[in-house]
Design goal:
The protein is of the alpha+beta class.
Length: 946
């Protein structure tokens, strides 16, 4: 399709862009007018006394914008101006708008802050930025049709800031101007990109208009051609009408003559089609075979088998030839055979062929001519096969199928029905529908009557129910009965299908039990408990006086699980569930929620004892020991109670209140009863607030790492520091870890804090080594959560590689409680740490489980004595424990560290016992980074950690 030349095309694009720019300039003027007045209002509200210059600027800008808008709206848009005139007006308005914006920026950014001390630089900075960026965005939106218009606004608008940047950079942050210049560059790039898009769209628009114009011309040409064709067609039609009149008389004659023949032909064809019967004649002398007087093929007796191969199914040829021989030998009076031939669709169909020899050779008595008929019996064959298949299905299907007469008496039944009912045919056939079932119960008789009534009324029935036959067999059945009608829609029989659902129902009950009950305790599970109590509260909310939710938890369950193992713990849960059922026979529900958590629900009234009495009875019931794995154990419970409606009126809130009371009982050490109070809410609120503040502290770097020196006892020289965390709270000051670490250990925050301490400590090591200070190692406390989250090795490798610090300068202090899960994972983790030359210290030894397995199975280098033993060494038992720990550590070639040393007496005692390293206030309190560096500088000898 031809298009205009390139020069004309480019001029058309430019013209389109100028016209569209004039249209969009109105929106730019309106947007800039709004922004300028918005800037004036904001400045006036902030500095009403100094707003005169801004007011004059806003007024002058408005006086420029309004006439320009009126000019564009009423003249340029409605009158046909020359393109050059529109272009000049667009440029004038663009540069005027840019100068107006630039003037405002100059006033706000330079003139007013310089001449009025009361005006803050940052206030005018934000207003000038808002003015220039908003106006540039509007220019980017409305003026990128033509880049010249955009830059006529852009350059005057940004000129004040660009020209005065070298001056302001001396008093203002250089990063601000770098960011501002970067934004201007991005806007310019965006302007070029939008201009390219607008130009492409303009090209497409002009090309589409040209295509539309060409298409309209083609349509006009086509209409002219069509009019000419219609005239020619009308002429041809007139000629055709004349020919038609001539041919009508001839057709009438032919129709009359052929009507009789056609009628006879249709009668014969209809008879053959209905009967599917065809006649045939076989001339054995000539070897010809004709069907319906039509020659079909050569068929000679001497090559009979070969000729039949092309017409008959290969499996049926031997039978057909045998039947022919029998007839030719006068063994049968008539030839009759069923076989398969191909129809017009090339499919095998069954036919029956009957024939007889009608002419013999008088001299030789050999057959000469044989005639006969054959009929298509494929449908009858299929119907017979279906009947036979249906009979086989009824015989072998594992569903009871019966036939009833119109009086609902059994007429016939398949073998499986007798197996299903455990009855004999003599007990069933001839009996009424429910005469073979147990009808002695009145309720069952009424149910049978309703089925019969529904069946006689609707002619069908389908339902599932329980049934007992007179043989004594009880089943869950699904019975479907349907009436069979004759051609006059009279019911002649009923067909019934009995399906045995006994196993399915048993399986459904089993699945329902597994969904709603715990298989270990045989108590309702959490899902069933939530559903039932929620429904109970909804349906009985008006009649319930009080409802008590009692939550129970087995104390020290984790330790019991470790001690007993999985199988014995299951036995323990069974025994606890049995005791709870026995001591709460009047409870609305006793349920098992999870792990060690049980719940009991009581509807309280004047008949029931008080809730306090109920809870005390439960505690007393568990005073008796339970015997598990040939051992007697005393089981104690933590109990939390919430009461409806005093504590909550909705089930979810009531359950949560009981959980809070239970948690409070656990915090008190267990073996106690706690009732929900509002203080529990405030306690949880405090924990949540503390967690949020800790997360904020991590982001704001409010956490600080302190260092407490470790000293060799035999030479009083420093060997290292233990890293300790402190929180420099903006309001509460410096907080001890006991004030916030317990809350962190309940969430993932403890791992985040541990990661922060690890990186900070290794960075400090790098700094001390770069300063040439004595080589020391840092002990870092590792929480159990850090061990099990799986990121400790990754964080350690990252820190060591980042700061180029060897692993031998790092020691991890791990508590006994962290190793309670003596798993293969922990073994592998500790060995990976040893491969990186990290020293391992067993912290607080003697205060927890104090299992000897920790020292024999795990690769520890250091054994640390807890400060509680050091500070109470004057007590005989504590003294003995210290002696035992030191002796055991020395025997196992472990270094012994004692913490909490505050007096000379304590130090002398540990020196006498040959303790290796001391730590405590006697030497120094935990020091911040600067004080620790100063402390380290007082030692001039370098030591290599062992």
């Amino acid at each position: 399709m031809p298009f205009m030349q390139n020069d004309d095309f480019s001029k058309e694009i430019v013209s389109s862009q100028i016209k569209k720019s004039a249209h969009y300039l109105r929106y730019l003027l309106v947007s800039t007018f709004i922004v300028c007045n918005f800037i004036f209002l904001n400045f006036y509200l902030r500095y009403p006394d100094e707003a005169s210059y801004i007011g004059i600027w806003a007024l002058c800008s408005s006086l420029f914008f309004i006439p320009c808008f009126v000019f564009l709206h009423n003249f340029v848009r409605k009158k046909k101006f020359r393109i050059i005139t529109i272009d000049l007006s667009n440029k004038f308005i663009s540069i005027g708008t840019g100068c107006s914006i630039g003037a405002g920026v100059y006033l706000l950014h330079i003139y007013l802050p310089s001449n009025y001390d009361s005006i803050l630089f940052y206030d005018t900075l934000y207003l000038s930025l808002s003015l220039i960026l908003n106006c540039l965005i509007f220019s980017l939106t409305y003026l990128t049709q033509r880049l010249s218009y955009f830059f006529l606004v852009f350059i005057p608008a940004i000129a004040p800031i660009l020209l005065l940047q070298p001056i302001n950079q001396q008093i203002f942050n250089q990063l601000f101007y770098f960011a501002f210049d970067f934004i201007l560059v991005v806007i310019c790039i965006s302007a070029f990109a939008l201009n390219r898009m607008h130009r492409k769209l303009a090209k497409l628009f002009i090309r589409n208009e040209q295509l539309i114009h060409d298409a309209e011309q083609q349509v006009q040409y086509s209409q002219r051609v069509c009019n000419e064709l219609q005239q020619e067609m009308q002429h041809s039609k007139n000629i055709e009408n004349q020919l038609h009149e001539y041919s009508q008389s001839l057709e009438q004659t032919i129709h009359e003559r052929t009507h009789t023949l056609e009628k006879q032909k249709q009668t014969i064809e209809m008879a053959n089609s209905i009967a599917s019967v065809h006649t045939w004649e076989w001339n054995l002398i000539k070897g010809t075979f004709e069907i319906n007087n039509t020659h079909v093929k050569k068929l000679e007796f001497r090559s009979l088998e070969k000729d039949l191969t092309q017409a008959l199914h290969p499996e049926d040829i031997p039978l057909c030839i045998e039947k022919l021989h029998q007839h030719f030998n006068h063994e049968t009076e008539i030839f009759e055979c069923e076989y398969r031939v191909k129809d017009e669709n090339n499919k095998w169909v069954w036919v029956i062929n009957r024939g007889k020899i009608i002419q013999y050779n008088p001299a030789t008595s050999k057959p000469m001519v044989m005639i006969g008929i054959f009929q298509n019996i494929d449908r009858q064959k299929q119907d017979h096969d279906r009947i036979q298949q249906a009979a086989n299905i009824m015989t072998h299907v594992e569903t009871g199928i019966v036939m009833l007469d119109e009086q609902l008496r059994y007429v016939e039944a398949n073998p499986y029905f007798f197996t299903l009912s455990n009855l004999t045919p003599e007990q069933v056939l001839g009996k009424q529908l429910f005469e073979i079932t147990d009808n002695y119960r009145p309720r069952q008789r009424s149910f049978h009557y309703s089925i019969t009534e529904q069946l006689l009324k609707n002619a069908e029935f389908d339902a599932e129910f329980e049934e007992k036959f007179i043989s004594g067999k009880e089943l869950s059945l699904r019975l479907r009965l349907n009436a069979i009608r004759d051609s006059k829609q009279r019911i002649v029989n009923y067909v019934g299908i009995f399906s045995d659902l006994t196993k399915i129902k048993q399986q459904e009950r089993r699945v329902s039990y597994l969904e709603n009950y715990d298989i270990v305790t045989n108590l309702p599970n959490r899902f069933y408990y939530n559903y039932k109590i929620y429904q109970f509260l909804i349906t009985n909310s008006e009649s319930i006086h009080q409802l008590a939710i009692i939550r129970l938890s087995i104390d020290r369950f984790t330790a019991l699980y470790e001690f007993l193992g999985n199988q014995n713990t299951s036995e323990l849960l069974k025994l606890v569930a049995q005791r709870l059922r026995l001591c709460n026979p009047n409870a609305l529900m006793v349920a098992y929620l999870n792990r060690d958590d049980f719940v009991i629900v009581y509807e309280l009234n004047h008949v029931q004892p008080s809730i306090q009495t109920i809870c005390e009875q439960i505690r007393q019931y568990f005073n008796q020991p339970v015997k598990i794995a040939e051992q007697e154990l005393i089981i104690t419970l933590s109990i939390g109670v919430a009461i409806y409606p005093e504590h909550a009126s909705q089930f979810e809130q009531l359950n949560n209140c009981a959980q809070q009371a239970l948690n409070h009982a656990r915090r008190l050490g267990g073996n106690t009863i706690q009732y929900y109070t509002k203080s529990h809410d405030s306690l949880y609120e405090k924990d949540v607030n503390l967690e949020n503040e800790l997360r904020q502290a991590l982001r704001n770097q409010e956490l600080e790492v302190y260092f407490q020196p470790k000293i060799y006892i035999h030479n009083e020289q420093i060997v290292g520091f233990e890293t300790l965390i402190r929180w420099n709270h903006p309001e509460k000051g410096l907080l001890h870890p006991t004030q916030f670490l317990p809350a962190a250990q309940q969430t993932s925050l403890i791992s985040d804090i541990g990661e922060y301490v690890l990186f900070t400590a290794i960075a400090q090591l790098r700094e001390w080594q770069d300063q040439g200070l004595p080589e020391v190692f840092l002990s870092i406390n590792i929480d159990a959560q850090q061990l099990y989250r799986g990121q400790l090795i990754e964080h350690l490798d990252t820190a060591l590689n980042q700061y180029q610090v060897a692993g031998k300068y790092v020691e991890f202090e791990i508590t006994e409680a962290s190793l309670i899960e003596n798993s293969e994972y922990i073994h592998n983790l500790l060995h990976q740490l040893k491969q990186r030359h990290i020293q391992l210290s067993l912290d607080d030894f003697g205060t927890g489980y104090s299992s000897m397995a920790y020292l024999t199975e795990f690769p520890f280098d250091v054994l640390k004595i807890d400060k509680s033993f050091v500070q109470n060494m004057h007590m005989k038992r504590h003294n003995a424990i210290i002696n035992a720990i030191i002796a055991m550590g020395k025997a196992m070639d472990l270094k012994i560290v004692a913490e909490g040393i505050e007096t000379q007496e304590q130090l002398d005692f540990l020196r006498e016992k040959q303790c290796d390293i001391a730590q405590g206030f006697y030497y120094a309190k935990p020091l911040n980074k600067a004080d620790a560096s100063q402390y380290l500088q007082t030692f001039h000898s370098k030591f290599t950690p062992s």
